[in-house]
Design a protein that fits this description.
The protein is α/β, with parallel strands linked by helices. The protein has two domains: 86 residues, Rossmann fold; 127 residues, Rossmann fold (3-Layer(aba) Sandwich), CATH 3.40.50.720. It has eleven helices and eleven strands. The strands form three sheets. The protein has a six-stranded parallel beta sheet, sandwiched between helices. It has a three-stranded parallel beta sheet with strand order 3-2-4, with helices on both faces. Helix 2 crosses helix 11 and helix 6 packs across helix 11. The longest helix is centred in the last third of the chain and has 22 residues. The protein is globular, with a radius of gyration of 19 Å. The mean pLDDT is 96. The structure holds NADP nicotinamide-adenine-dinucleotide phosphate. The site of NADP nicotinamide-adenine-dinucleotide phosphate has 25 residues, from helix 8 and helix 11.
């Protein structure tokens, strides 16, 4: 392997030190309320990590577990109560929500200044305007990893594979806001068979699809910064979307999976809670 590893844990450690100090200087201890509707193993793993990180940093953590049969209206009313509760700094709604509940409506019901995941339309709009306040956690995590390389981003060619509203789209806006020439690839790019040529141009490549081995190592531009957001279970292993060993032969920097983006995502959630807490102290 010739690439340098971009390890999320190391960067997260530094950010958490700063957050600890910020939290100590706040008038009120921040409180994050996590809302889980029904059972989901992936969400439960994330919730465990949220609680651990919150407690280590001095953020109060409360989990509201709701029955999968809850109506959309009842969920929105519960969110309304959390919005009104002055002791709550941030709220995270665990996705996916059960069928029949419109996640966009639910996200829209959050008070924007308590939206710990940055999924309220106002917060996403601010990302689009280049005035991000609370920003989707995984997109922020990818940016932190890219910036940690110290490479000047201005004018670079980036390719983002995956255009979900939680990862690919906000990330492409964050890159664009830094004057990176950004191409966004999606299912139609894959179907047209032109993913290799887009990927091959990328000086910065970020992949967030959820398909193991989708991106072949041989497509990677030599010297690229490569961030793999994908999480896939293959047998008893967790792997990303990129063929790691082959890509690491060509890239200058690459994230491992696991250990790359994941540890930083939860740190960005904590940073959002601190931002949310500060916004409420201003208001
Ligand atoms: P998602 O909502 O399912 O989005 C996947 C995206 O990939 C969609 O935009 C889809 O396009 C696109 N796509 C599907 N097949 C493709 C192909 N063959 N070629 C090009 N693009 C293709 O997933 P997500 O929530 O963004 O998550 C993506 C991955 O990241 C998952 O593995 C997830 O577990 C992981 N993830 C990791 C973290 C972390 O902290 N490490 C956080 C969030 C997510 P269409 O919509 O057009 O079909």
């Amino acid at each position: 392997m010739s690439a340098q590893l971009l390890e999320g844990k190391v960067i997260a450690g530094k950010i958490k030190e700063g957050l600890k100090q910020e939290i100590q200087s706040l008038k009120q201890k921040p409180k994050l309320v996590s809302v889980q509707v029904g059972e989901n193993p992936a969400s439960s793993v994330y919730i465990k990590s949220q609680r651990k990180n919150a407690e280590n940093l001095g953020v109060e953590y409360m989990l509201e577990t709701l029955d999968a049969g809850i109506t959309q209206q009842a969920l929105i009313e519960l969110i309304g109560g959390l919005n009104e509760d002055a002791s709550v700094s941030g709220i995270i709604i665990q996705l996916p929500l059960p069928k029949g509940i419109d996640h966009r409506l639910v996200m829209g019901a959050l008070a924007p200044e308590k939206d710990a995941e940055g999924m309220h339309p106002e917060n996403l709009g601010r990302v689009l305007l280049g005035e991000a306040r609370i920003c989707p956690c995984t997109a922020q995590a990818a940016m932190e990893l890219i910036e940690s390389t110290g490479i000047k981003l201005y004018g670079k060619e980036a390719v983002v594979v995956g255009h979900s509203e939680i990862v690919g789209k906000p990330l492409s806006m964050l890159l664009l806001n830094r004057f990176v020439t950004t191409t966004v690839c999606h299912i139609a790019t894959g179907e047209r068979g032109v993913l290799p040529e887009h990927v091959g141009r990328a000086e910065i490549l970020v992949v967030a699809v959820g398909k193991a081995g989708l991106i072949k190592g041989e497509w990677i531009k030599p010297g690229a910064i490569v961030v793999d957001i994908g999480i896939n279970r293959v047998g008893d292993q967790i792997v990303g979307d990129i063929e790691f060993e082959q890509a690491a032969q060509r890239a200058a920097f690459i994230t491992p999976v696991p250990g790359g983006v994941g540890p930083l995502t939860v740190t960005m959630l904590m940073r959002n809670v601190v931002t949310a807490s500060k916004l409420q102290q201003i208001n």
